[in-house]
Amino acid sequence: MTFRSKISGFIDTYFEVFSISLTLAVLFSVVFIPAVYVIYSSFFKKILSYGQTEEFFIGLSNYFRLFSDPYFWKFLSQNLIYTMGSLVVSFFLAFACALALNKITSFKGFFRGIIILPWVFPPVVAALLWRWLFNDSYGLINALLRPVTSPVLWLGNVKIAMFSVIITDAWTRIPFMMIFLLAGLQTIPNDLYEAAEMDGANIFTCFRYITLPLLKSTIVLLLLITSIFIFRTYVIIGGLTKGGPAQATETLTTYIFRLTMEYWDIGYGSALSTFVLIFILALGFLYLRIFYKGEGF
Amino acid sequence: MIVLFFATITIVPIFWVFSTSIKPMSEIRTWPPYWIPKHPQFISYVRIFTTRPFLQYTANSVIVASVSTAICVLLGLFTGYSLSRKKFKGKTAIALLILATRLFPPIALISPWYGLASKFNLINTHLVLIIAYIYMNLPFVVWIMLGFFDRIPREIDDAGKIDGCNKLSLLRYILIPLAGPGIATASIFTFLLSWNEYLLAAVLTVSPSAKTIPVGVMEFISDEFIVWNQLCSASIMASIPAVVFVLLFQQYIVKGLTAGAVKG
Predict the structure, then answer these.
(1) A94-111, pLDDT tens digit by residue?
(2) Do B75 and A19 touch (CB under 8 A)?
């Protein structure tokens, strides 16, 4: 056996093991180690003094503090409102759009291309773009509403700011949901609709008894994964309001950012991070279970 | 009709940003605003390069996004191939574990990442962002490639082996050409998501030598007086890759969106 063929034999034998292990090693070191570290830090009080960090083990104190922190509950409920609001708005709009796009025959690719633009745009740009549209003194939205109402403080009014944030977020979610639903719609065979029409079904009964039942698993999967994505988003709120006015749009993600990157309260911030981590992973676990069943491994 | 409505709510905001980017400051502060500037000018596009380090930001974004895409696609390709071809116990579990890492919320991990990066003196380097973006996109790339390789019949592998191919040459000459569309999808996605990412870049960089474009765009907001026409020019600049990709590779983007369902 020559040296060359020995090497090639070696590569052949260990190629799979090597590449899978490398991927796992990379993901392990950037995800699992930091995740464990964040849980570990949540049991400490960390004080930054003269560039040195001093740590004191304080057990579960950070968690007691967290659950008795009124801000935590306020921001958690705001986070849920934000997630559900954006989910509902973007889902219904995306569904309507997918149904319509599924019907048209000409310029389909052209329109689909335009409609997916908000998804490929940098989220920072999406946030700042809407910040400019919502601008109270020179923004386009107030200009368009001029005949109807006097200028509205879209981002400055405590009661309206969350609504504006939800609209912005939904704008960025529609393309993904639309494409996902469109792919689902295209798997439904046309004969089903033709047969139903023969039996005298109209558009609405077709939708109710054919489209919805056949898309059920797609919809469940889509709603779960999208709610995970919305819940953990920072940049939309970060770019629009930074949590203001008067913390009306503050969520757990902006609170984590403030605690760890602005107040350097690492221990407490880690306890909050751990909470978000567990919450999201529980949703993620549910998602993977359904996904796993659906793929039919 | 409905489609036209959606096309409008997409296009109008984008048009408005473009229109603002070529307005002089005086026209931005007119009420009611004009749709089309009376005196269009492109000076804001020049200003962001002369008064702010946007040239450096762009270079950083290009370096970080392309290097992380190259590494990510290569490693994802090998891993996807291995998971598709090798039979072993716990394969499904490993595939799902890889997918699960994509569900971790990055916001919950920013403080350990910052801590680890400063421990290894990696804060404000291209390297740390490249690592971060490899993590962000690798699970997705593995899944796309796994899906593509599963659809290529194994008989092709066997035929190649009979002709004397080892695994690397099999990949190089037979499978990679066949999986071309998958590789294109994975590369476009990785590049775009790395280019667009803000949160990690904001946490892990401090000076213009490593900051990327999204961080640069966000900096306008912390100014005392927001220069909207320059902000809009910078936003348009930041969105160029996105628009180019949609124009040229729409098919691949659509395919990727449905293939993985794992984007953040």
Answers:
(1) 999 998 888 887 787 888
(2) yes
